[in-house]
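dude i think i finally got it to work??
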Amino acid sequence: MVEIPKPLKLTATDQRVLTQEHYTSADRARIPHLYPPYEEAFLRYVARGPMSGDPSNHLWRSFRLCARMMLDVGCTYWAFSWERLVTWRAEQQHLHAHRSPGWHHNWDARWTEVTATLFFLEVLPYSEEIYRANHMELAYKWLGKEVVNAIQERFVDMALTIGYRYPRQALKNGAAVVLMVLTANRSTDLASISRADLEAWEAQTRRSRRVARSGVTTAQKVLAAMGYLDGEAPRRAGGASRSRASWGRTAPSIIDTCERFLSDLRTMRRPGTVNVYETILRRFGDWLGDHDPTVRSVADVRRQHIEAYKQAVAEMKIGDHISALRPSRLGDKRGQPISRNHQIRCISCVRAFFEMIETLEYPERPGRRLFIRGNIASRDHELPRFIPDAEWHRFVSTAQTLTPKLVEQHRLPRPYERSRAILAVLLECGLRAGELSRLDTGCVIAAQDAATGAITHWLRVPTGKLHNDRMIPVRPSLVETLDIWMRCRGPQPLLRDERTEKMQDFLFTWRGSSPTPDSLNSLIARISQIAGVPRATSHQFRHTLAVQWRKNGMKIETISRMLGHKSLKMTMRYAAVMPETLRREFDQAFAAIDDEHRITAQVHVVLSPEAHLAAAAAWRESLWVDLGIGWCGLSAFLPCDNRSACLPCPNFIEKREQLPLFQEQRRNLIELRMLGDERLPADRKHEIASAVEVLDQRIVAMDATRGQIANASPSDEPAIDGDQLATSEHHIRHRDRRGDRGGAAPIPG
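look at this
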């Protein structure tokens, strides 16, 4: 292929030919570097598709206008730029303002043909100055109608597959962005598109910000689902690039230092942490530019600036000294004082910034100590913010009775199955918002018990805030809800996990994105509105579940494992917010103390010292449980899962020689039950009654066995039959009325 010469200046021959009204073949031969390339590009691309009249006539008129441009600008079209052409067009419009609308329409058509041809010649970069009214026309010229229609069909089909339910024409807005980017890159391969290309197109488009942002976001998600973008994670729905955020009045050299610091920080911290630092440094830089404009470098920061910043932070309001990516997200919070914890974070991040650039030996570091001990106040350790029982039950009831009709009526996020599954996980598992959004499609694991064959289900929670993953049990109802959602979900694009940098098939991905903390809190807020309770957050659900678990008897160790805490110290804070649990344990402890003091006082008053000692010994002994082979040293007031555990066990085989021992144990248990009838807790009474019932069964069985083998194994032990078992408790009552306690002194009351 012969390389086309691209001279930038017009020669005298070029000027003579271009000033002529008509060009003969000989004239065109004198400008081979101008006319033939223009003709080839025009007929190949610009004349593609329907065109009124003879294409050669359009070619001649457009080249005449191009010739006028070259003569007026004073260079060949190979040296054209958009700045030169836009300025020239403005001059021509002013010069011919008196012309008729028809003349201006024809002139604009010729302008479009010229600039489009120069674009295909790679003279001009892509710009919407070419087709200001019909952006898609340039894509049709570049790709051809068949290719454009094929790309649109593929795009729309995939969009509908991953959950978009808009009309097909609306979905084509995202396809239009893809086609425009292909045209701007002069490419025909979808695999060549990158996220940077899409955002570059968004930055230059003249469409409204809302339309352009929506189109680019849709294009990213659908392309990712189609397997393109090289695994780059699509941004959130309606989200903007962080490059749109402004540093405000921050000095340029300080911006450079902060950007370098953030780049170094990304190698050590998670993206969420880096974003927090970026937001706070933007606030600090904007405040510094407003407080002392003479500070042009980080090296100029003094201790007095830090002191002034500390005082300013204490008085700052939400929205002050910060360029939010989406200011509307601040909502009603704008103008309210920032929380104390956020004030501490604003100062601690700035301190970490100065300490790190000192450690990394940035050339522009201040070279002096700007922070001293005590500059940062201690963070308040408040009790967990849990939802009161009445409000919690109303919210749970509303979430469980959610229907598709309610979802449609209250404009809840669709589909209904996804919202229901998310709420089910939030209301049962106590996950953090980040953990829930990172659950993958294989997070539910079924386990079968080898002994019983029972199947249990477990939820694998990914590595979270404390760098540990865990397995927590889930109920069958939750598994069923997740199964319903998976059947509705369909195929979704893989998304990059910010923690592991691996592509994952996240469980709650829909329309190419997984839920965010903001979207979760928005869903909870709408359900709260339906239930008529105050607005809550997803993290309050976590606190509330911990409180509910503890209040209903779950051990602190178990709660710690469910929540993914590294130490019990983190979980013990939940034990401080259960007044009912605390009150119940407090009352039980002091009831036992009161009983002991009351009984001891009565014995001390009525009996002699010797009788008191004997009675105290008998009473203490009677409060122990006779195990048959000895006494349980744990008071009968206190629960024990192991006490008398062998008696009801089906694997326990009693010996005939143990019959007297079982009879004695039974009598002691009945006596204990009668003596403690007014003092023992109900669960302890039930424990003793169950033990007596099992002993009855054992004694009857042993007595029957002894009758069958009496001839083979004679014994002098007294026999016991069913009538004796039925009347033994009556004998004990009769003995107690007579005061016969085997030599022990009677206990008053």
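The first helix runs from residue 12 to 18.
im so relieved honestly
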